[in-house]
Design brief:
The protein is an alpha/beta fold. Helix content is 35%, strand content 22%. It contains 20 helices and 28 strands. The longest helix has 17 residues. It is globular. It starts with 16 loop residues before the first helix and ends with a helix.
């Protein structure tokens, strides 16, 4: 039994996402559900829960009118925008199965996923119209194309003043078999749906949700012909929302504003940054783009951000860069140490002492949540020392997605957190240090991989999902992740080396942009541990000057590796240092780096 240290937060019981929306409308009809940015540079336009519910109902009614009912597959390909939020719940709370797809994919990759999911309809943004309309004729199951086109709410005008805007593309697509697929404007979808509702159409309202049926298909990362497709239901998603809210207080007072910065096709953003916020009555503010994050935080009075490590690390570096420019680094570090000590005896003056940092984030920020990958604990420690709640969680698409999460008053910055209430986590085949593969189970676990029963049977054994991640559980129940099972290096004498741990320490050096630790076999049957380092140009110039030679840079990297080796067991020691002159930004995806290194080695 996990000890959560203090009572779990209260939560609302919901049976499905339709039940969730009904209760949110009843409890928060006039709360602002979305702060939209239909026009960059213009003020936020608020949309209430009442308005959102009406738009979902209108769009959902029309999806049914178009024949997109039971067994229909509806894909969404778009940037974060209001129509995405409307489309998703219009389909989920009707009878369609939703297929959120990565907007960054190229035309051939999109085509592959449309066909693998047997799409009946595609709802898409004008931004990606060329790609989608260019391959639509090759999707034999396709019946409808629906393009988002600046709905009237975006300007605050009535529909009479602001009629539907044509997208300038074709009004129909002819498939290879000769059948014709109409292109419908999203404005028209809403308008016709409202008309049907006004005439007494009750179809959408009367849909009975089967909470255990497959209702969403989520393609995981990887090449489109090999990527896994995860199946989820209303039940698995709702279970995750009810569980996660019991650990963290975000939304408990229905007064949080969460800035949406991650793609909505990712289940982390969709469940945690979108659906959970609707569940608890919060406000979702759209970001205009990564370069506008600070401005948007101030304008929307944001209180919480869900981010990936790359984003938080970038923000963290910027804060320290500004502090150094003012020549206040030593002072700030002393004050961090002082306020940390005062906090231990019950005196919390962090927000007052570091008020300028809070002001830089708009003055309302309370919570930073990191997910999607491991983050350097020192970054979370700094945010915490400055007076914020800063925690990380652990999840997988297969768990809708959260499996473990830290609490605001019971946490470890080096940990992925505690199992969610109702979830079980255990370590199998542990070594002498207790490190083994992480397996989990819970009501939020996927229904399986779509059209891949053999992969499902391989991943879920005796009811436990095998994550492929390695780690251990501390005496007080926290999950510590050490790396991926497939990246683990096993020495001749059976010791395990986790490259990610070594890379994380090396990457703290400002002179190193990225590093990749790997093993090369030796004649004696053991391994030579090597590191390929991508130097950080600015960091190296700051340390060695602009005229530093390649030899000086190599010597510096060897010195940094030597310092690391002095702090770790001998068997983990890195014996060969290699320099890469290819430029990668700091905190580039580990997969990209490893794939690059393997390719170059060949």
């Amino acid at each position: 039994m996990t000890d959560y240290k203090y009572p779990l937060h209260p939560y609302k019981k919901i049976s499905d996402l339709k039940d969730m929306m009904d209760k949110s409308l009843e409890n928060y009809p006039d709360n602002v559900a979305f702060l939209t940015k239909p026009v960059k540079g213009e003020p936020y336009f608020p949309v209430s829960y009442r308005k959102y519910y009406a738009d979902v109902e209108a769009a959902g009614t029309m999806l049914l009118e178009l024949g997109l009912g039971t067994d229909s597959r509806v894909a969404i390909v778009a940037e974060t925008r209001y129509e995405w939020y409307v489309s998703y719940l219009a389909g989920m709370n009707g009878e369609a199965t939703m297929v959120p797809i990565d907007k960054e994919l190229q035309a051939e990759e999109l085509l592959s996923l449309f066909n693998r999911s047997y799409c009946d309809a595609i709802i898409y943004s004008p931004e990606y119209a060329d790609r989608i309309e260019g391959v639509a004729s090759q999707v034999p199951t396709l019946k409808h194309l629906i393009i988002m086109n600046d709905p009237s709410f975006a300007t605050g005008k009535s529909e009479e003043d602001d009629p539907a805007v044509a997208h300038g593309g074709p009004d129909k697509i002819t498939l290879e078999d000769g059948s014709v697929v109409p292109v419908t404007l999203f404005n028209d979808l809403l308008r016709e749906g409202r008309r049907l509702l006004s005439e007494g159409d009750q179809r959408f309202r009367q849909v009975q949700i089967d909470p255990e049926a497959v209702r969403v298909l989520l393609f995981t990362s990887g090449t489109t012909d090999k990527s896994k497709c995860v199946m989820h239901s209303h039940k698995t998603i709702c279970a995750n929302m009810m569980e996660m809210g019991q650990l963290l207080f975000v939304g408990i007072n229905h007064d949080d504003t969460v800035l949406s910065v991650l793609p909505l096709n990712h289940t982390y953003e969709c469940t945690c940054g979108f659906l959970y916020q609707i569940y608890v009555g919060d406000t979702i503010a759209q970001v205009e783009g990564l370069r506008y994050i600070t401005d948007n935080m101030k304008e929307s009075k944001v209180t919480c951000i869900l981010a990936v490590p790359l984003l938080l690390e970038s923000v963290h570096r910027q804060v320290w860069r500004n502090i150094r420019k003012q020549g206040k680094e030593k002072l700030v570090r002393r004050m961090m140490s002082l306020t940390r000590g005062l906090k231990k005896i019950g005196i919390d003056v962090r927000k007052k002492v570091f008020g300028s940092i809070h002001d830089a984030f708009g003055g309302h920020m309370r919570t930073f949540i990191s997910g999607g990958a491991a983050i350097d604990p020192k970054i979370l420690e700094d945010f915490y020392d400055w007076g914020f709640v800063a925690v990380q969680g652990y999840g997988l698409t297969e768990f809708a997605p959260i499996l473990a999460l830290n609490r605001e008053r019971h946490f470890r910055h080096d940990s992925a957190g505690l199992p969610l209430p109702g979830n079980d986590i255990k370590i199998i085949n542990p070594n002498e240090n207790g490190i083994g593969e992480i397996v989990g189970r819970g009501a939020n676990m996927m229904l399986g991989y779509y059209e891949a029963p053999e992969l499902t049977a391989e991943a879920i054994v005796d009811g436990w999902y095998h994550t492929g991640d390695m780690g251990y559980i501390t005496d007080d129940g926290f999950l510590i992740i050490t790396g991926r099972k497939k990246n683990t290096i096993i020495t001749k004498n059976g010791k395990n080396i986790f490259p990610e741990e070594l890379e994380a320490v090396l990457n703290r050096n400002p002179e190193i942009a990225e590093s990749v630790v790997s093993a090369e076999p030796r004649i004696n049957g053991d391994h030579l541990i090597v590191v390929e380092i991508f130097p950080d140009k600015e960091g190296v110039e700051e340390r060695l000057g602009k005229e530093a030679s390649d030899e000086q840079v190599l010597d510096l990297m060897k010195e940094l590796v030597k310092d690391l080796n002095s702090k770790i067991p001998t068997y983990q020691g890195i014996r060969d240092v290699r320099i890469r002159d290819t430029e990668f930004p700091k905190n580039t995806s580990r997969k990209i780096l490893r794939d690059y290194s393997k390719k170059e080695a060949i």
